Amino acid sequence: MSNEGRSYTLRIWRQKNRNTPGKLVDYKVTNISPGSSFLEMLDLLNEDLVAKGEEAIAFDNDCREGICGMCSLTINGIPHGPERRTTVCQLHMRKFEDGAVITIEPFRAKPFPIVKDLVVDRSAFDRIIQAGGFISVRTGGVPDANAIAIPKDVADVAMDAAACIGCGACVAACKNSSAMLFTSAKASQLNRLPQGQAEKDRRVLLMISQLDKEGFGSCTNYGECQAVCPKGITLDHIAKMHRDYAVASFKNVFGKVL
Amino acid sequence: MNGILRLLKSSVGKKYLMAITGTILALFVLGHMLGNLQYFFDARWINAYAHHLQHLPYGLLWVVRAVLFTTIVIHIVVGVLLTLHNVQARPGYEVEGTVQASLGSRTMIWTGLVLLAFATFHIFHYTVKNVQDFSSIPEVNYISSVTPEGLPVVETETVITPDGNGIIRPVATPNVQAIMKTGFSVTGYSLFYIFAVGMLMLHLSHGVSSVFQTLGLRNEVWRYKLNCLAWLYAVAVFAGFASIPVSVLIGKL
After folding, report:
1. Are B89 and A249 in contact (CB < 8 Å)?
2. Which residues in chain A are closer than 8 Å to B216, comparing Cβ atoms?
3. Is the pLDDT of residue A151 over 80?
4. Does residue A118 have a pLDDT over 60?
5. CB B19 within 8 A of CB B214
6. Which residue of B15, B94, B212, B219 to mutate against A (max A Cβ within 10 Å)?
7. pLDDT exceeds 90 at position B199
8. Cβ separation of B95 and A228 shorter than 8 Å?
9. Range(s) for CATH 1.10.1060.10 in chain A?
């Protein structure tokens, strides 16, 4: 692989604010190291723009280690770009051929309004968590480690669900803008553990209800979410949530959950 | 009551409805296909089968029709509602990318609408029979069974004639095999039929495995097996249905 600088044509979504219509604007970048990350490439472009007195392109980023869930770019129609199980910050320019045309758009979904350029407001996710993605415990003394025995395989699956960084790629990739992968991971990480049992039924009913209120689409089992998830969350968790929701609804019809 | 309302209003509750009605319809098309395959046996098979269906006791035929009709209405109405909701939720990209969503999964609403159009035509064609004139095809004697010696048993009925005499005569029944053959010998109808069952195949290829996911009866191990199973089911239904018009078209060559 050549380490010489590469050139790209970037078609980047520019939008002033939530209410102004946006459009794709073309930019040329040159002398990009194949070893640089996608965000570093955008940093270089922004430095150029600022030097020329133009406005920098706004995009979300934070840890740049693939664990914070802030970066949210859709590259050539695929959230987080062409490489599987990575966030944009962990995507490198060696994945793009010299001279390629790269289209960069924000994570698009009605419940994720665009704030500016490539930045979207994902607080709908926070409200889903607030609806039921927690456990109620008395805070106080630290409980003994291993006071509650949890089988290893159960802990593993709960940990897989807890790997969700809440980036929103699942919603951005879904052709229905469904947030089922995110919501199911956040419910699953608690529903599978003993600590989460007490509020299990309330949790799924309230989280699904909030998800519908936010205007996310419904899940039609495309599997696009799993394919783009940087943390490899699987459709298993959605199936589990479907099960839990059926049980909770049944109890809610004949008993009283809410 | 609140619980039921909450369930029906939720997106997941609507998907349960899609899965349950979809299961009924998927089983119906399989049964319909297996029944149709009797076309390839002696004519008395499919004619007797059709006669039985038309003469189910206690008005069961209309019960079955009512259940199927209700199921289809729910499947369509809820499916359209969900689709409209999904379209609203997605603003769309300048460049659309698809990583792995199958063709079947992306075209459910369209294959579904084609099937609705086809099913309507199909009922007028072969049940109401006002699309094509089948009146020139004579009715045949209803052969209910075969004796151990291999002789056909012709069912008879007693009819009172206007002058008060009772006469015993064979029960007449439509020659369904001949009607199917006549219907499919019109190339246009046959091609539409084959196209429609092709759409059915695509619809089932996603629908059958989706049922398990929606009802929560699937995991990473079973997912790929169920996807294969769904395709097998879909191809079997397609092959079974399409074999009849194909055989008629080949027979015309």
Report:
1. no
2. 239-244, 246
3. yes
4. yes
5. yes
6. B94
7. yes
8. no
9. 122-254
Question: Is there a contact between A139 and A38 (Cβ–Cβ < 8 Å)?
Answer: no
Question: Residue B72 — pLDDT band, cuts 50, 70, 90?
Answer: very high
**What pLDDT is attached to residue A116?**
97
User: In the numeric block, which tokens belong to residue A7?
Assistant: 């050139």
Give the number of A-B residue pairs with CB atoms closer than 8 Å. 149
How close A70 gets to chain B, by Cα (Å)?
A: 20
E strands, chain B, are 140-141, 143-146, 152-154, 156-160, 166-170, 172-173
Q: From CA A225, how far away is CA A177, in angstroms rounded?
A: 10
**Residues constituting chain A:** 258
In chain B, residues with a C-beta closer than 8 Å to the C-beta of A244 are 216
Whether ipTM exceeds 0.90: yes
Stated as kind and residue range, the H or E segment containing B21 is: helix B11-36
- CA distances (Å), B251 to each of A256, B39, B47, B187, in order? 64, 14, 21, 12
Q: Do B16 and A177 touch (CB under 8 A)?
A: no
Whether the CB-CB separation of B127 and B218 falls below 8 Å is answered with no
What gap in Å lies between CA B170 and CA B138, rounded to an integer?
Answer: 14
pLDDT recorded at residue A2: 52
A236/B11 touch (CB, cutoff 8 Å), yes or no: no
A35-46 residue pLDDT tens:
999 999 999 999
Choosing among 2.40.50.100, 3.40.50.10320, 3.90.105.10, 3.10.20.30, the CATH entry for A6-116 is 3.10.20.30
Residues 6+ apart with CB under 8 A from A80: A71, A73, A86, A87, A88, A91, A167, A169, A228, A230
Q: Which fold has domain A122-254?
A: Fumarate Reductase Iron-sulfur Protein; Chain B, domain 2 (1.10.1060)
A205 within 8 A of B13, measured Cβ to Cβ: no
Position A50 pLDDT exceeds 80: yes
What residue ranges do the domains of chain B occupy?
2-89+105-136+176-252, 140-173
B2-89+105-136+176-252 CATH: 1.20.1300.10
Give pLDDT tens digits for A100-110: 999 999 999 99
Are B91 and A242 a contacting pair at CB < 8 A?
no
Q: At what angle do helices B187-214 and B176-184 cross, to 10 degrees?
A: 100
